[in-house]
Amino acid sequence: MKKVLIATDKPFAKVAVDGIRQIVEKAGYELLLLEKYTDQSDFIKAIEAVDAVIIRSDIADRNVIEAGKKLKIIVRAGAGYDNIDLAAATEHKVVAMNTPGQNSNAVAELALGMMVYMARNSFNGSSGTELRGKSLGIHAYGNVGKYVATIAKGFGMNVFAFDPFVAASVIEDDGLHAVGTVEELYSKCQYVSLHIPANAQTKKSIGFDLLSKMPKGATLVNTARKEVIDEEGLLKVFAERPDFKYLSDIEPDCKAEIIEKYSGRFFFTPKKMGAQTSEANINAGLAAANQIVDFLENGITTFQVNK
Ligand code: 3PG
């Protein structure tokens, strides 16, 4: 009997696990569950006997992949797959997939939620500001960026977008302003919402040069990855621009300094929370389970990311 493991340090909602179980058992496989593990060695042990694994931001490095002696497929229930060692997967003939778009609305709602929270001074009773009429730059117009743009337009924001891989006409057709360069996006927008993946090109790419271009009352919103931020540059902007604020769905490595010096100008989730809704867990979890069955039964590799 084939075995499918769910390995989630940050567990799915129960309803999503139940749905995954149904799909897996209907296919005649056994479901194993490893949640809230405290040590990577637990993951390494659990993967030894399984044919397939579903993960979230869990680290699937070379050690994990090599421990999976029977492993044929690893599905990241979510968008970013920077936590999978793709070279190791390819080397060991393990198919790696993600589930693009399935959790995007949840992440977008958190981005706007953090913006409202900060604009209203953390709901502390003092007079805040509104999002209506403010400029918002979407940095990378993928699945999450599109949802953020749609919701922001509902708030009456003036939405701009930049994505080197998306034609300006696509952005304009969605009723947004397309800008030609990343510098232009940051120069024009009081709010910038980051949706770039973390890879060799983007790591530490958002730093002082871009952030210092933002107009007065600047707020950077990061629901992407902390690794895309050049934290030295971030701290320099915090020091030089008393108007600058930073909202991040995960704590930066330099959080201690920000907490100590820049009270009231930041909000960080303690754990990555963007995709942490029942709906997103169901969408991404069930998609992952279906992709595993489709692959093991019919060789379907539509969402493979290590081709
Ligand atoms: C993603 O890449 O899909 C999001 O960052 C969500 O990550 P999570 O599944 O760890 O919450």
Describe, in plain words, how this protein is organized in 3D:
The mean pLDDT is 98. The protein is α/β, with parallel strands linked by helices and 307 residues long. It folds into 2 domains: 3-102 and 277-298, Rossmann fold (3-Layer(aba) Sandwich), CATH 3.40.50; 104-268, Rossmann fold. The longest helix has 21 residues, at 278-298. The protein contains 12 helices and 12 strands. Bound molecules: 3-phosphoglyceric acid.
CATH architecture of the largest domain: 3-Layer(aba) Sandwich
Percent of residues in beta strands: 15-25%
Largest sheet: 7 strands, parallel
Question: How do the SSEs run, as a string of H and E?
Answer: EHEHEHEHEHEHEHEHEHEHEHEH
Number of helices: 12
Q: Look at the helices and sheets and give the structural class.
A: alpha/beta
* Rg for CA atoms: 20 Å
**So what's the CATH class of the largest domain?**
Alpha Beta
The residue ranges in which pLDDT falls below 50 over 5 or more consecutive positions are none
Amino-to-carboxy terminus distance? 27 Å
What fraction, in percent, of the residue positions are helical? 25-40%
Average predicted confidence as pLDDT: 98
Number of domains: 2
Topology:
Blueprint: E1 3-8, H1 14-26, E2 30-35, H2 40-46, E3 52-55, H3 62-67, E4 73-76, H4 86-91, E5 95-98, H5 104-119, E6 135-139, H6 143-154, E7 158-162, H7 168-173, E8 177-178, H8 182-188, E9 191-194, H9 208-211, E10 219-222, H10 231-240, E11 245-248, H11 255-261, E12 266-268, H12 278-298
Parallel strand pairs: 1-2, 1-3, 3-4, 4-5, 6-7, 6-9, 7-8, 9-10, 10-11, 11-12
Helix pairs in contact: 1-12, 5-6
The structure holds 3-phosphoglyceric acid (3PG).
